[in-house]
Amino acid sequence: MATTLVKNGTVITASDRYDADVYIDKGVITLIGQGLSMPADTVVDASAKLVMPGGIDVHTHLDMPLGDTTSADDFESGTIAAAHGGTTTLIDFAVQDLGQGLYPALEGWMKRAEGKAVIDYGFHMIVCELNDQVAGEMDKMVRDEGVTSFKLFMAYPGRLMVDDATIFKALSRTRENGGLICMHAENGSVIETLVAEALDRGQTAPKYHALTRPPHTEGEATGRAIALAEMAGVPIYIVHLSCADALEKVKRARDMGLPAYAETCPQYLFLSSEEYERPGFDGAKYVMSPPLREKWHQDALWNGLARNDLQLVATDHCPFCMDEPPQKRAGKDDFSKIPGGAPGIETRLVLVWDGGVRTGRIDAHRFVEIVSANPARMFGLWPKKGTIAVGSDGDLVLFDPEGETTLSATSLHMRVDYNPYEGRVVRGTPAVVLSRGEVLVDHGRWLGRKGRGEYIKRQAGPPLVA
Ligand code: URP
Ligand code: ZN
Ligand code: ZN
After folding, report:
1. Whose CA is nearest to atom 5 of ligand 1?
2. What is the pLDDT of residues 251-263, one digit of tens each?
3. Tell me, what's the pLDDT at 173?
């Protein structure tokens, strides 16, 4: 297998900054030093670049069925887009079907990814029914399959939502098996009532999606999820946290010393509920759950990231097209039928760098921590992924802090016909992206190979995150 030498860069990890060359042999970093001059199959010049560990996106939905449709990116297009954006590992969600065990779900998602993914990947498992057989399979997932985290929904009654008893049982099971529960925290019963009331009043436009999922419904569920985890005596991880109300619950728990953790996503840091006021049906582009919030929540979330009340940024990449094909249009007469989700797998690093590091909200080390190191530490990938060290995989982003990009659906690689940030100019670009020493992207040129991505069995155990 080939060797790669990355020369003349400035290495930045969550903790260190130094000028060095990085040598990768058989996909793994074997030497870091100054003035390395050994022969290598590939030599990459990193002059004027920051050499950072590849991004890790722990929340994606590729090729995910939803009702009559499927999320627009599959494991090929989605991982190619991820790589262009500097992400070299992702964790997607396999979904248990009602009446089925967890193994058919894992097998289904393995098939979706195999032969297609261009970067390394793992799976969380969405559990929507928990009987004794499924509880036993949770143990096997952790022990035998490297699926060490499970998502539960407190929303979407009749489909995905589980009750408090089920949540408590699942949490308790992770105390024994070393897994981690990831929670979609929205009060589904209250939302269901608000949605029915709105539709009764003839309120069918996309903006009512947000108005029927107010911040209290997320805050209440977040507090309840943390309380249930405290009763079970286990850590808990809140996914796609969007608002100050929920953040306050996480912060209070952490101040009390509880192992509560949470991610937020770029859409909640950069976009606001004003998007739902767009003319016509355009607000549907921003229909996701939780919805976008009033602008003032953004400062709270940035502060949460800076102070470690929030531990990382993932994307919840779940794209559906507006017109080609007309996926979002399924809800043109009823906002509750708009498939929820938005694209983001390609734009996470550039947005967080531009809005976080360039504005001085966080420094470059915290940037690496929230987009790469903490995702690895939280989900059993550390230190194989998430850092630059001898023995770690040669997953690198050669980042040009001065490079400028205009975000647009026409130039980005996600297979979706709009971009939520259309026209936004960001500074800081992933110029060269390597996965296990292979150059995947070189200044926008795609050099990767379909299917080269490998499934990663993740380690069990408590999160290695403060
Ligand atoms: O609306 C969203 N976020 N769709 C993706 C599924 C989920 O709840 O994460
Ligand atoms: Zn969710
Ligand atoms: Zn999601």
Report:
1. 341
2. 999 999 999 999 9
3. 98
Query: How many independent structural domains does the chain possess?
Result: 2
CB 125 within 8 A of CB 382: no
Q: Is 318 in the pocket of ligand 1 (CB under 6 A)?
A: yes
Query: How far is 284 from 265, CA to CA, in rounded Å?
Result: 18
In which domain, by residue range, is 414 found? Answer: 3-52+393-446
Kindly report the CATH number assigned to the domain that includes residue 149: 3.20.20.140
- Any atom of ligand 1 within 6 Å of the Cβ of 378: no
Quick: pLDDT tens for 28-51. Answer: 999 999 999 999 999 999 999 999
Instruction: Name the β-bridge partners of 264.
Output: 313
* Residue 165 in this model has a pLDDT that exceeds 90: yes
State residue 229's pLDDT score.
99
Atom of ligand 1 at shortest distance to CA of 61?
A: 5
- Inside any domain, residue 229: yes
Query: Does 79 share its domain with 21?
Result: no
Query: Measured between alpha carbons, how far is 182 from 315 in angstroms, rounded to an integer?
Result: 15
Q: What is the pLDDT of residue 10?
A: 98
State residue 1's pLDDT score.
61
Q: Give the pair of three-digit tokens for residue 93.
A: 């969600």
Q: Is the CB of 289 under 6 A from ligand 1?
A: yes
